[in-house]
Amino acid sequence: MRVILGVTGCIAAYKSVVILRLLQKSGFEVFPVMTRHAQEFITPLTLEKLSGNKVICGVFDDRSTEIEHIALARRSDLLLMAPATANLIGKMAHGIADDFLSTLYLSTTTPVVLAPAMNVEMWRHPATQNNLQMLRKRGVVIVEPEPGYLACGEEGEGRLAQPESIVQTALEVLRPVKSLLGKKILVTAGPTIEDIDPVRFISNRSSGKMGYAIAHEAAQRGATVTLITGPTYLPAPSGVRVLPVRSAVEMRDAVLSHFADADVVVMAAAVSDFTPVTVEAHKIKKATASSVLQLHPAPDILEEIGKLKQSQFLVGFAAETQNPLENARLKLREKRLDLVVLNDVSQPGVGFQSDYNQITVISPDGECEDLPLLPKHQVAQLLWDRISKRLFAIAPEGARGA
Ligand code: CTP
């Protein structure tokens, strides 16, 4: 396998040396390409000596008859941009080809993986986020930067992801591991909305991002995935059947009608616990309204399927702000779960509405594993690793996935 390693001008450029080495260890031949600014941080000679290949820096580096960016694009299996600056991301999003690397991007038909690195405000800027969204829609795989201490002295998201996870992503893109092939997986996500009247409702702050990432990752691993989702603003994950619902009752009905057929159910939705006794057909007028809203309990979907479960592997979430471990273990027992994912939502930047999550995975045998604060798509990967380990450990021989 041949990888083009595109290196752009930021302090994290020095990490491209480690990335190059890890790519080689994974069996890749590496063709480095550097922008003009990247050469301010490391020299082409370093990457040339390590890769054993000429490092291309400019459009007119090679005066042979070959059109070099086209020839290189055709010779490779993957284009990996690491680190990628906000400038490169902007150029890629808008089709600007004013140097070798951005021209190469337009010429390539291979998968593209992008590992951004920049200042936290540059990362959060709507221009950067919109550009990334455009690239994601085109199928570019983004290895999200990590939060932490940045070279500029500020703290926040923007630090280049770990070289190991960048190379792992490159490997998965080229050789996706279909470890869940043949498995039917039901995932719920988002909030539910409990209507009071045509203009008012009760809901919660769930964005749906965690559940969508879990559904996406299961599909990547070859599973047949159905995502039952409350209202969110998220695009449908590719390769996933999406069933939109609104209320807890609608979600319950959808879950029950797919439950018997499922091998694994992951209840990541933030289901309302209460719903109004009556939904008014017309807007309640304040002059005639009572100041007390009558509620009754919404169905506890997970508890219900916990009672019905046969061979299904059930994963629940526990969103807690107090006594997190104790409360999560209680949910594990009471809802007859095979795993519970604890979210301490009292921590800043964790869980609801954030792109990051920090989870603790707790199993009935008492194992309790804290995972680091990570982008939700990486949390989803780690969670599926843990679910798979247990799923295949308890499945009878022959019933295991491919
Ligand atoms: N859940 C559910 N139906 C509900 C409420 C929750 O299926 N009506 C599921 C959630 O999807 C989650 C798990 O149960 O997987 C735990 O949800 P959580 O909101 O943490 O706890 P609750 O069971 O609602 O209990 P409490 O609000 O008292 O913490």
What does this structure look like?
It contains 13 helices and 21 strands. The C terminus is likely disordered. The chain is α/β, with parallel strands linked by helices. The radius of gyration is 24 Å and the shape is elongated. It has an eight-stranded mixed sheet with strand order 12-11-8-13-16-17-19-20, with helices on both faces. It starts with a strand and ends in an 8-residue tail after the last helix. The protein folds into two domains: 175 residues, Flavin prenyltransferase-like (Rossmann fold), CATH 3.40.50.1950; 221 residues, CoaB-like (Rossmann fold). Helix content is 33%, strand content 23%. The structure holds cytidine-5'-triphosphate. The site of cytidine-5'-triphosphate (CTP) has 14 residues, from helix 11 and strand 16.
Each distinct ligand: cytidine-5'-triphosphate
Largest sheet: 8 strands, mixed
**What ranges have pLDDT less than 50 throughout 5 or more consecutive residues?**
395-402
In DSSP terms (H or I, runs of 4 or more residues), the helix count works out at 13
Task: Please state roughly what percent of the residues sit in beta strands, choosing from under 5%, 5-15%, 15-25%, 25-35%, 35-45% or over 45%.
Answer: 15-25%
| Shape summary | elongated
Strand tally is: 21
Q: Within the largest sheet, what's the order of strands?
A: 12-11-8-13-16-17-19-20
Name the CATH architecture of the largest domain. 3-Layer(aba) Sandwich
**CATH class descriptor name of the largest domain:** Alpha Beta
Return the structural class.
alpha/beta
The CATH topology of the largest domain is: Rossmann fold
> What is the CATH homology-level superfamily of the largest domain?
CoaB-like
Q: Average pLDDT, to the nearest integer?
A: 91
Tell me the helix content: 25-40%
- Structurally, the number of domains stands at 2
Distance between the termini: 24 Å
Radius of gyration: 24 Å
